[in-house]
Each structure stands twice: as C-alpha cells, then as structure tokens.
C-alpha cells in the first residue's frame, strides 16, 4: 500500500539502508541472514539480552558487574558454544535521566541458555529496588 516512511539513521550509506530505500527486500534479507550467521545471531542461535536501568549510575554499573560475574562463574565449557558479551553500557546509555547497561548471552540452543537464565532470575531478588532488570529472550531490538 502507498504510504510514507521516515528513516532515522546515523549511517545513511550503510548497505542495509540502501537496500531498504531501493525496496530490495530479497537482497536485504540475503545479506542480513549472511551477516547474522557469521556473527552467530538469531535465527542461527538463541540470544538473551539482560537490560538494566537505574537513576544512580554507580549503583546500576555495580549491579551490571554483579550479574556479569554471576553468569561468568557459571558458564558452561567453551565447547557448549555459550558466549557472554558485557556487561557494557547500552547503545543508548541514558534515557530520561536513567543510566542503562546490558549483558548479552548467545547460545546454540535455548536449552544451553536456560540454566544461566534461571541463575540470573534467582539473583534478581538481591538487586536493589533502584535498578530495574529485564531479561529479554530472543530480543526484537538491541537498543
């Protein structure tokens, strides 16, 4: 259907943006799937994003480090293919005066992620009320 689409990007010369503007869905999908396979991103793996947000930057960073250390201590052997990225500041590190951090877990299957996610969920009882933590399995967005 006809319509108007607004695109906001920091990189208007990026190949995915060019393909989208040219209405090249097949080229976009082919390139995106190749990129996702090479980087072990969904749909070729399972992913969980652990997002943290808090008004006090030091407290939020401390909780992110605590959760990162917890996951790091319970990682399966490297042969299981589970990877932890972070903790790190979120791509958009501050929104509405709150500091944002994230951890990303990637694994070949959901079964490989499940024990780590269970430990994370159990640890949320120890997180101060000033820090909000959301666990998003197979996130639709990474911002």
TrEMBL record:
Q: Give the Gene Ontology MF terms in alphabetical order.
A: 3'-5' DNA helicase activity; ATP binding; DNA binding
The segment(s) forming the Primosomal protein N C-terminal domain are 43-139
A GO biological process of this protein is: DNA recombination
> Where on the tree of life does the source sit, at the highest rank?
Bacteria
**Keyword match Methyltransferase:** no
Q: Where is the signal peptide?
A: none
> Which of UniProt's keywords are assigned here?
ATP-binding, DNA-binding, Nucleotide-binding
Q: Does the keyword Transmembrane helix apply?
A: no
InterPro entries in the cross-refs: PriA_C
Q: Which Pfam families match?
A: PriA_C
- Mind telling me what this protein is named? Primosomal protein N
From which organism does this entry originate? Corallococcus llansteffanensis
């Amino acid at each position: 259907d006809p319509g108007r689409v607004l695109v906001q990007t920091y990189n208007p010369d990026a190949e995915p943006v060019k393909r989208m503007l040219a209405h090249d869905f097949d080229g976009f999908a082919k390139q995106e799937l190749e990129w996702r396979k090479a980087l072990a991103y969904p749909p070729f793996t399972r992913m969980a994003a652990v997002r943290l947000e808090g008004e006090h930057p030091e407290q939020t960073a401390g909780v992110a480090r605590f959760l990162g250390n917890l996951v790091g201590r319970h990682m399966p052997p490297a042969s299981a293919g589970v990877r932890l990225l972070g903790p790190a500041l979120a791509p958009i590190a501050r929104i509405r005066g709150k500091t944002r951090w994230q951890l990303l877990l990637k694994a070949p299957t959901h079964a490989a992620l499940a024990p780590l996610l269970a430990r994370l969920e159990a640890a949320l009882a120890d997180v101060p009320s000033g820090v909000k933590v959301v666990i998003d399995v197979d996130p639709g967005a990474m911002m």
